[in-house]
Structures are given as C-alpha cells and as structure tokens.
Design a protein that fits this description.
alpha+beta; Pnp Oxidase, Chain A; 9 strands
C-alpha cells in the first residue's frame, strides 16, 4: 500500500486551481525488463510509416544482448524497414484479468544479419523456442512457411530475413508494471 501512495503525485490542472491525484505506474529496472523480454516470445514492432506508425507483431528470441526476429521477405514491414530502420519494439505480459501486467518499449535500429553462421544460429534458436513453448505449427505461416511443412524447414530454406535490434540506449527504454500486491504468477 505504501508503494501505491509513493507512486501517486498531485498535479495541477489548468488554471482553475483544482488538484487531481494521478497514479504513476512503477518503472521496471533493467533486470526486470530483461527478464520480461527473456520470458516472452511475441512482440510488436512500430515502424515509421508513411503518414502514421505501422505496427506489426513478430516472434522473437533474446540471447541476453540482442533481440532477433525472422521477417518474411514481403509486405509493408519490409518496405518500412528499408526506408527507415529506426523502430520501437514493445513486449508485454499480463494476467487475463489485468490485475498484474508489465510492458517494455525498446527504441533501437533494426539491422539485417548477413553472417551465415549467426543467421543459422538464430534460426536454430527459433526452432528450439517453438518446440519448447509447444507453439502450433500455424506459427510457421507468420515466418513464410506452410503450417504443413516440418519445423526444420526454418533451418534448410531461407524464406525469411534475420533482423536484430541494435543501437539500443538503455536510458531510452521504458518499462512499466503494475501488480495488485498478490503473489500471483503471471504465467497465464
């Protein structure tokens, strides 16, 4: 309860002299948002669109330093990436009733990985993640493959590009959280 009181502040509204209590969500520290990124596997990437941001969902893996993505070689996301690789990646986690939630927004620059060894290692990690999390074979369709194909097709055919998030300045990362205070697992 004290944390909630500490997180509240008074803000003056306009010139009317009225005051309103505003709740500010607690920020996550680096270890918390690193853990969130490590545990999850779905994110949204916000690209600079033509007239407004373009947001696309992606599967990702995190090696402790970089986030990696597999992108199909077609679509608007590819056009936006080529025009401007500066993006914000958002990862979130929440309980079904939203009593506990956390999210992190990570600004950075997408780079296409060219090194064949790194690309192969990333693809292997994607296969491991898909198997470890028991994801449906339908997820292959988001990566440029048919759900009827074996998952190992990710390793033998390059129907997608490997991107990594680079140029991240930790001072620009925003991670926020809220918990109802109960020790409820967010593994819903």
């Amino acid at each position: 309860m004290i944390n909630l009181l500490i997180a509240m502040c008074e803000t003056r509204i306009g010139d009317c002299g009225d005051f309103m209590k505003v709740f500010k969500m607690p920020q996550m520290d680096k270890s918390e948002y690193d853990m969130l990124v490590k545990e999850e596997h779905i994110c949204r990437i916000a690209f600079k669109g033509e007239s407004h941001p373009y947001i696309a969902p992606f599967l990702y893996i995190f090696d402790g330093k970089f986030m990696y993505f597999l992108s199909t070689k077609y679509g608007k996301k590819l056009q936006h990436f080529r025009r401007n690789p500066f993006v914000t990646v958002e990862v979130e986690k929440y309980t079904p009733d939203l009593s506990n939630f956390a999210f992190v927004a990570i600004p950075g620059r997408l780079e296409e990985v060219q090194d064949p060894e790194i690309k192969n290692a990333v693809r292997k990690k994607f296969v491991e993640m898909i198997e470890r999390k028991s994801l449906s074979s339908n997820v292959l369709s988001a990566l440029g493959y048919s759900p009827d194909e074996p998952i190992d097709s990710l390793l033998t055919e390059e129907r997608n590009s490997v991107w990594k998030l680079a140029g991240v300045n930790s001072g620009e990362i925003l991670g926020l959280k809220h918990s109802d205070g109960a020790t409820v697992s967010m593994n819903a």
